[in-house]
Structures
1.
Amino acid sequence: MIHYLNILTLENTLTMSWRLKYVPLNEFKELCAILASNEGNAFIHLDFRVDEDRRYIATGSLTAQVQVVCQRCMEAVTHDLALDLSLGFVYDEDHAKNLPKDYDPVVMTDGDVILADMVEQEIILALPIVAYHEESGCNPTAVKYASSTDDAPDGEKPNPFSILAQLKAK
Ligand SMILES: [Zn+2]
């Protein structure tokens, strides 16, 4: 598994399809802070090549099953992620502007890119803003508890962020 990639390894990988079998989710610290559980893996497949304009690009896919927090009962709910990746490796922001719209720019610092960080950001961007269990899939005890901590007027759904804000204000 390659976590760290620089322009030289990129040159060397250009002629082959490059497979990252998996990255354990617990290696992504920023992501795990958001998730309900750090169990599971991200499966990644990328093909590297140079396009006709001499751009370094990579296309492929990423799949992962992640545990996010249900906003109704505050317990873990499984969410399947399946992303198509189209990446363009660039040296700076100016260079990124020349990239066709289909590609997400990945800026290489001094010609290097930490692939794991890039993958982590792709996953974070793809997470649902709010997640709920399927109908009746919530833990009823947890729902009762979650709603009993809510001071909002009748009819309003509990908002965990307002509860968090109240806690922080104390
Ligand atoms: Zn739920």
2.
Amino acid sequence: MFTYFFSQRRNEKALFDVHSVINCTVLEFALENGIHVNVDNYQELERITAIINDQGQTKSSVGIRLKPVLGVGAVKALSTCTADSKFGVQLTDSSKEEIIGWYLDRPWLTAVHIHIGSQSYDCSDLTCGVKCVVDFALEVNGRLGKKQIHTIDIGGGLPANLEDDTTRPSFQDYAETLKKEVPELFPSYGAFKKVITEFGQAFNAKAGWLVSRVEYTKKASDNLKIVLIHFGADMMMRTCYCPNVQKYQRRVEVFSEEGQLKEGERMRYNIAGPLCFSGDVVKRDVLLPTVEEGDYLILHDCGANSLSLFSRHCSRQAPAVLGRHGLDDLKTSRVSLIHLYYFTWKKNELVL
Ligand SMILES: Cc1ncc(COP(=O)(O)O)c(C=O)c1O
């Protein structure tokens, strides 16, 4: 239950389906408290139907997570609109009528949801997914002769550029593509009341970086050195466990003990973490200026999918987090599981 994220900003409650296996207790809680729910499969829909029949009504908006089969993007593990993806209900020419029937039978099914994947698609791919569910919603509403589906949840998925400091594609780029291809989504069209978004990576990746003091350096061969630092697969799970996926790689920079960016002749390094297995390497064959004991090593664009994926392998403790609001206000805290509970359950923001 505590793995759910609730947002009560402006008195709005939303259930971000951070995982897709939701039990009856959580469903009852959400439906009693008017929290938006996205349904993953038909069995879950039957449970929700029974709960709402028992409760008499619900203040929640409820939508089906639809999965048009659009193909694999850049990272298969992060693509959710393949035929074999575990997420959502497949929307095809042959399944469409049955799903429309679910809506016709349930007046409280007032939303649709899509999230085609993360880090895998550009604005036009994402827009293509959104168009599928908007067309579906318009068809349901057309058949019913009323605007039963009033909420479109377009998920997240906007990628973050990890190659340099520029933000591309921007939210504006995505909005413009949507406006051109799916104008029905926008308020001026009057088809729907509400659009929900679930951006993760695009919002957060560039807001954080990881830093470690270089503890040791050692020679692997004449043209390769190994740098040992204090984070590895504990913080950068995907990077270390899937070293061949380019989208999981991050930029590295090295600073001297005094905080100066190091420059000069470069040589090849592997940057390795503190865990007890050989794959604990956050960057391989990277060309860097001379790295020395006591330097600081920075991994950029780690504001998303780093601390949130933290692994306790080797009894590692989650690292201290430094946060900055404005120019002067630097706060620090060691993030424990208790803090994460507090963050997700009690407050809108991480109070350090
Ligand atoms: C349902 C859903 N929405 C949103 C997101 C966030 O995706 P992204 O970080 O690519 O924006 C995810 C990521 O796993 C997800 O599963």
